[in-house]
């Protein structure tokens, strides 16, 4: 979650960017917002076809407890191999 005090957002994003660079992956989907219903669910960026970074807005370290609906959207998208929603639903 973007309010995680255990694993900070900025450190995680930097780590993923460095990993993508080391693997030679280019950004395929630029950093953008994703939606859960009619609200911002978080932010995401995709590198190539292999690596994705996503946050859950308003979530703490255990995201499903603090933002269950947004967490479910992210998990479903991951399991179904789909991108996170780009528009309101």
From TrEMBL:
<dbReference type="InterPro" id="IPR033124">
    <property type="entry name" value="Ser_caboxypep_his_AS"/>
</dbReference>
<dbReference type="Pfam" id="PF00450">
    <property type="entry name" value="Peptidase_S10"/>
</dbReference>
<dbReference type="GO" id="GO:0006508">
    <property type="term" value="P:proteolysis"/>
</dbReference>
<dbReference type="InterPro" id="IPR001563">
    <property type="entry name" value="Peptidase_S10"/>
</dbReference>
<protein>
    <submittedName>
        <fullName>Uncharacterized protein</fullName>
    </submittedName>
</protein>
<keyword id="KW-0325">Glycoprotein</keyword>
<comment type="similarity">
    <text>Belongs to the peptidase S10 family.</text>
</comment>
<dbReference type="InterPro" id="IPR029058">
    <property type="entry name" value="AB_hydrolase_fold"/>
</dbReference>
<keyword id="KW-0865">Zymogen</keyword>
<dbReference type="GO" id="GO:0004185">
    <property type="term" value="F:serine-type carboxypeptidase activity"/>
</dbReference>
């Amino acid at each position: 979650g973007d309010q995680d005090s255990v694993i900070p957002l900025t450190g995680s994003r930097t780590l993923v960017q460095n990993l993508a660079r080391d693997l030679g992956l280019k950004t395929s989907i630029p950093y953008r917002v994703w939606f859960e219903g009619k609200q911002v669910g978080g932010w995401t960026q995709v590198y190539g076809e292999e690596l994705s970074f996503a946050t859950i807005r308003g979530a703490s370290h255990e995201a499903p407890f603090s933002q269950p609906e947004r967490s479910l959207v992210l998990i479903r998208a991951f399991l179904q191999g789909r991108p996170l929603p780009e528009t309101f639903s």
